[in-house]
């Protein structure tokens, strides 16, 4: 039998050297690649964007006109309180979708492909979360836009609003680690959504998002004042309404760092066990 020469070089699998650890540069590159994949999924399925496009339009008008007179006397006086609060609430709602989508991908076998690749184990988790920064930006920007359309005038100006949006995006990315953990350990997407909503509603409504904490009973007020969502919303108010870098901004950043420090390692560890 005569062997045909094709010009291709065949490498013995035994000669292939796989790096024992993935470098930081490779981890960043792989994370951005998977973030681009998640962005393409958003573009092809625009219905997944309804929670950050339609919801801000409905909630901003609804909460402002229903509760404005009862809480602050009139809608105009309520807007500096409710607009930053709705940004926190909308971003937190968007975080829930992160865990649900992760569980869906795991159930459909997508991550079975990732586990045979020599990539950083955190990349499949962090990639979609980086892509979700776009969702948080859209949600925050639309909420501010609707608020301005109905009479809200942020005293912090353009720079204050930009700083508030950046803080909301960072807070969303940090809080999404909580729901990422739920997505990994949950049995299915429906269970993940149910657990996430049970966590989201107390974090949102037991905060200063919709009402001042001064009128709350003692235990609820104590919880609301240390709630990470309250810290973020207070900092967003300082930036948007006053354009001030107060200590509340520092506390919000510290709260975000604590959430990441706790839930990011837990998520990666649970993901490695699943993989």
What do these coordinates show?
- With 275 residues, the protein is mainly alpha-helical.
- The protein has one domain.
- 75% of the residues lie in helices and 0% in strands.
- It contains 10 helices and no strands.
- Helix 2 runs antiparallel to helix 3 (75-107), helix 2 (50-72) packs across helix 5 and helix 6 (157-185) crosses helix 7 (189-205).
- The longest helix has 33 residues, at 75-107.
- The radius of gyration is 22 Å and the shape is globular.
Radius of gyration: 22 Å
Q: How would you characterize the largest beta sheet?
A: none
How much of the polypeptide forms β-strand, as a percent range? under 5%
- Rounded to the nearest angstrom, the distance between the terminal CA atoms is 45 Å
- SSE order in H/E notation? HHHHHHHHHH
Seen as an oligomer or otherwise, the chain set is single chain
SSE class: mainly alpha
Identify the overall geometry. Answer: globular
Low-confidence segments: 1-6
Range of helix content: over 70%
- What integer is the average pLDDT? 83
Q: How many helical elements? A: 10
The number of strands is: 0
Number of domains: 1
Short description:
With 275 residues, the chain is an all-alpha fold. The protein contains ten helices and no strands.
SSE topology sketch:
Elements: H1 24-44, H2 50-72, H3 75-107, H4 110-114, H5 123-149, H6 157-185, H7 189-205, H8 218-226, H9 228-242, H10 247-274
Key terms for this structure?
single chain; 75% helix; disordered N terminus; 275 residues; mainly alpha; 0% strand
